[in-house]
Design a protein that fits this description.
Blueprint: E1 2-5, H1 7-19, H2 24-47, E2 51-56, H3 60-74, E3 78-83, H4 90-98, E4 112-116, H5 128-138, E5 143-147, E6 169-173, E7 176-177, H6 185-188, E8 191-195, E9 206-208, H7 211-215, E10 232-236, H8 242-252, E11 259-263, E12 280-282, E13 291-294, H9 302-314, E14 318-321, H10 324-332, E15 343-346, H11 350-357, H12 361-366, H13 368-379, E16 382-385, E17 390-393, E18 398-401, H14 413-427, H15 431-457, H16 460-465, H17 467-473
Parallel strand pairs: 1-7, 2-3, 2-4, 4-5, 5-6, 6-8, 9-18, 10-11, 10-13, 11-12, 13-14, 14-15, 15-16
Antiparallel strand pairs: 1-9, 16-17, 17-18
Length: about 475
C-alpha cells in the first residue's frame, strides 16, 4: 500500500527535511529536475514535439517550473514561459532570475503545456487572471503536465476550487496527496508519476489499495481441501425487494466461500432455486455463519427493525449492515451499536452516511477520511463510505480504494458489493480487508465492463461476469496461479 498525505503532513515533512540540512534550494532543484524528466518524456514520446510552454505562478510550484524550464532549455528544447503576475516567493524569485528564456502572453505556442500555477496548499476559490490561465490551458488542446497537483484542485479532499486544470499527467513530488484519489481528483490528475526527491515522510492519513494488497487474498488454494474449510456466508434480505438479495447472494458465490445461505423466512425458494441451485435456502438466518449480510431490499418496518435488533443482540460473527439496515440504525440511534456481540461493517453511501453521522454531505465531502475515521472509532465499527472512491476505516487504519468506473453508478451495485464483502469475510478476511478487496475488484470489473459495453450499457450481470477477469488481472505478469 502507498501512503496518502494531507497538505499539512507534506509541509511538516518538507520542513523536517530542511532542518536535517537539506536546503529548500536543493529540494526545489530536485523537484524541477523530476518535473523536467517527465515533461521531456511527454515531448519526445507522446507529442513528438520539442515546443513546451511553462505556466508559472508566484509560489514554489512556479519555482519548480522555472528550474525545469531552464534545464530543458539547456537540453535544446524550445521553451517559453507564461508568468502570472504577483509577488513571488523568495525561492520562486531566485529561480525566475536564473531562467533566461523567452516569455509569452499566449497559450497556443506549444503542444505540451506544463501547469505550475498552484501547489497543494490552495484552499480558496480560483479567480481573476488565475482562472483565465487555467481555463486557457484546458481549452488549448495541448498535452498537459501538472507539477505536483493540477492547479485549482484541493490536495486534501480532491474538490475543484471553482475551476481546475485537467491534466494528462501529474508529476507527484515526494508524497502522494489524498486529493488525487477523491472526488474531482479522479478525473483531473490523469496518470500520476511519483518522484522521490529525498523528503522523509513520517505521517500519513490513509493507505491506497493496490493490486498486491488484494492479490494476497486470492493466492492458489491447496488441492487437499473441502468446502467446509472456506466458511459460510448468510444473506438475510429481500423482504421488500427480492432482487436485492438475489444480487447479494449471487455475488457472494464468486468469492471462494464454501457455503452461501439465504434466509427466506416465510417465502418459498421456488422462485430462486432453478436459477441458483447452489444456494442453501433456510427459513431462519444461520447464526453460526462466519459472516452475515443484512439490509439489502429488506425495507424499513417494525418487523425488520426487530430482526436487526435480534442480530445485534445475538449474532457473534461478522455482520455487514447494508442499505435499509443502515437506515434502521440511523432511525433507532447509534447507541444500539454499543452492546452488540458482532463485529460490524456499515456500508453507507453519502446520503446514508450524512443521516447516520449527523454531518452534512458537504462536510463529509470536504473531509471524508477524518469523518469516517472518527465515526468508526466513536462507534466501535468498521465503515465503507461508498462514493467515486471508497473510504474504509475501523478507527485504526483507513484505506482508500480508487479503482472504478461510472458503470457502478446504478441500482444493484451496492447489493452485490455487500454480498461480496460477506463472502470474503466468511472466508476469513477481517471486515476492513473484505471491504477493500470487494470494492477494488468491483472497481476493476467495472472498468473492464465499461471498455466492452460502455458505462451507459453495463448491467449488474456484466459486472459479475467480469469479476473473474478482475481477479486474474491481479496476477498479470506473475507466475502465481489462481483457483476461485
Amino acid at each position: 500500500m502507498k501512503y496518502l498525505l494531507r497538505n499539512d503532513q507534506m509541509r511538516a515533512a518538507d520542513m523536517a527535511t530542511q532542518r536535517k540540512g537539506v536546503s529548500g534550494e536543493t529540494l526545489m532543484k530536485r523537484g524541477g529536475e523530476a518535473l523536467a524528466y517527465e515533461v521531456m518524456a511527454a515531448c519526445d514520446l507522446v507529442m513528438r514535439s520539442r515546443d513546451v510552454l511553462f505556466v508559472c505562478g508566484t509560489g514554489n510550484n512556479g519555482g519548480d517550473g522555472y528550474v525545469a524550464a531552464r534545464l530543458m532549455m539547456e537540453r535544446g528544447y524550445n521553451v517559453s514561459v507564461y508568468a502570472l503576475e504577483g509577488d513571488p516567493s523568495s525561492d520562486n524569485a531566485r529561480e525566475k532570475e536564473r531562467y533566461k528564456g523567452p516569455y509569452v502572453r499566449r497559450f497556443d505556442v506549444a503542444k505540451v503545456i506544463v501547469d505550475c500555477i498552484f501547489g497543494t496548499g490552495l484552499s480558496r476559490e480560483v479567480l481573476d487572471h488565475y482562472r483565465y490561465a487555467i481555463e486557457a490551458i484546458n481549452h488549448s488542446g495541448a498535452y498537459v503536465v501538472s507539477c505536483d497537483i493540477p492547479s485549482g484542485l484541493n490536495g486534501d479532499n480532491g474538490m475543484a476550487l471553482g475551476v481546475a486544470v485537467k491534466a494528462d499527467r501529474t508529476v507527484c513530488i515526494a508524497g502522494l496527496k489524498l486529493g488525487y484519489y477523491l472526488h474531482d481528483g479522479l478525473d483531473l490528475c490523469g496518470e500520476i508519476a511519483f518522484k522521490d526527491i529525498g523528503i522523509e515522510l513520517t505521517e500519513f492519513t490513509a493507505l491506497l489499495a493496490e493490486n498486491s494488497d488484494v492479490a494476497k487474498f486470492f493466492l492458489q488454494r491447496p488441492r487437499n481441501n473441502h468446502k467446509g474449510n472456506f466458511g459460510t456466508a448468510c444473506i438475510w434480505g429481500g423482504q421488500s425487494y427480492p432482487g436485492a438479495a438475489t444480487l447479494a447472494f449471487s455475488a457472494a458465490m464468486m468469492t471462494g466461500v464454501g457455503y452461501v445461505k439465504f434466509a427466506l423466512e416465510d417465502r418459498s425458494p421456488d422462485a430462486y432455486a432453478p436459477a441458483y441451485p447452489q444456494i442453501i435456502y433456510t427459513k431462519e438466518p444461520d447464526m453460526n455463519a462466519q459472516a452475515l449480510a443484512f439490509g439489502m431490499g429488506t425495507g424499513v418496518s417494525d418487523k425488520t427493525k426487530d430482526e436487526l435488533k435480534y442480530l445485534l443482540s445475538n449474532y457473534t460473527g461478522k455482520l455487514i449492515i447494508d442499505a435499509d439496515g443502515v437506515k434502521m440504525i440511523a432511525e433507532m440511534g447509534l447507541d444500539i451499536l454499543k452492546d452488540t456481540k458482532a463485529k460490524i461493517l456499515l456500508t453507507p453511501h453519502l446520503q446514508e452516511f450524512s443521516t447516520l453521522s449527523g454531518h452534512s454531505i458537504d462536510e463529509i465531502r470536504s473531509n471524508p477520511t477524518k469523518i469516517v475515521y472518527g465515526f468508526a472509532r466513536m462507534c466501535g465499527v468498521s465503515v465503507i463510505l461508498k462514493s467515486s472512491s471508497a473510504v474504509i476505516s475501523n478507527g485504526q487504519r483507513t484505506i482508500i480504494c480508487s479503482r472504478g468506473d461510472s458503470a457502478l453508478a446504478k441500482a444493484g451495485s451496492g447489493d452485490m458489493l455487500a454480498g461480496y464483502i460477506c463472502g470474503l469475510a466468511a472466508r476469513g478476511l477481517d471486515l476492513v480487508d473484505a471491504a477493500m478487496c470487494a470494492h477494488y475488484l468491483f472497481g476493476v470489473a467495472a472498468e473492464f465492463a465499461a471498455q466492452e459495453f460502455t458505462a451507459y450499457c453495463c448491467t449488474s450481470k456484466d459486472l459479475m461476469n467480469n469479476i473473474p477477469k478482475a481477479i486474474k488481472s491481479l496476477f498479470e505478469g506473475k507466475r502465481k496461479s489462481l483457483t476461485l
